Amino acid sequence: MSYVLLAHAADAQSRADRVAEKLRAVGFDVRAPEAARPRDDVEGASAVLVLWSRSAKAEERALTRAAQRAGKLTMARIEPVTPPVAGGVDLATWNGRETRAWSKLVSELQQKAPPKSAAKTAAKKAKPVKAAKAVPAPRAAAAPAKTQSFAMLSVGFIVVFATLLGAAALFTAPH
């Protein structure tokens, strides 16, 4: 089962709870890392969301690097800080409502850990597909060879005729 591992500094618990609540409302399974083995939790998670604040410690840095190596990292800044890895979404001024930054965060997580509601919806919509009869593709209508030959002959005749008229005009003009 896919889930999002949510890591944050201890003093950012209230912000982390709000983020987790909103993610669960969208359908994500959100879990906190176990204190004894946070880096081991990266292996079991489909995505790792690290919330960066001023009080982020070495633990969050180590978890960020482990998640990045595993291709599971998603970051959000909940205070104006510079995380050790470039990127992430800025939620420093996020008020819990739908914003561009929030939508970007949800989109990034959906790519790594599809929400439960999306998986259920896809399973409900999936129906057996009946084999369709093979219908031959319509043939392109090709112009008959006689029509093409006549057109080329007509163009050639006009060119020759115009050339002869031009030459006759040169010879018959008074000098």
Protein architecture, described:
- It is a single chain.
- The chain is of the alpha/beta class.
- It is built from six helices and five strands; from the N terminus they run βαβαβαββααα.
- Strands 2-1-3-4-5 form a five-stranded parallel beta sheet.
- Strand 1, helix 1 and strand 2 (30-31) form a beta-alpha-beta unit.
- Mean pLDDT is 77; it is low at 118-135.
Given the helix and strand composition, which structural class is it? alpha/beta
Q: What percent strand?
A: 5-15%
Specify the number of helices: 6
Mean pLDDT metric: 77
**Secondary-structure element pattern, one letter each:** EHEHEHEEHHH
Strand order in space, largest sheet: 2-1-3-4-5
Query: Biggest β-sheet: count, sense, barrel?
Result: 5 strands, parallel
Question: What distance separates the N and C termini?
Answer: 99 Å
Gross geometry: rod-shaped
**Uncertain segments:** 118-135
Radius of gyration: 34 Å
Any chance you could write out the topology, listing elements then pairs?
Elements (H helix, E strand, L loop, with lengths): L3 E4 L5 H14 L3 E2 L6 H7 L2 E6 L5 H12 L3 E5 L11 E2 L9 H13 L3 H10 L19 H28 L3
Parallel strand pairs: 1-2, 1-3, 3-4, 4-5
Which features would summarize this protein structure in a list?
11% strand, 175 residues, five-stranded parallel β-sheet, alpha/beta, 5 strands
Q: Nutshell version of this structure?
A:
The protein is an alpha/beta fold. It has helices at residues 13-26, 38-44, 58-69, 100-112, 116-125, 145-172; strands at 4-7, 30-31, 47-52, 73-77, 89-90. The chain is built from 6 helices and 5 strands, in the order E-H-E-H-E-H-E-E-H-H-H.
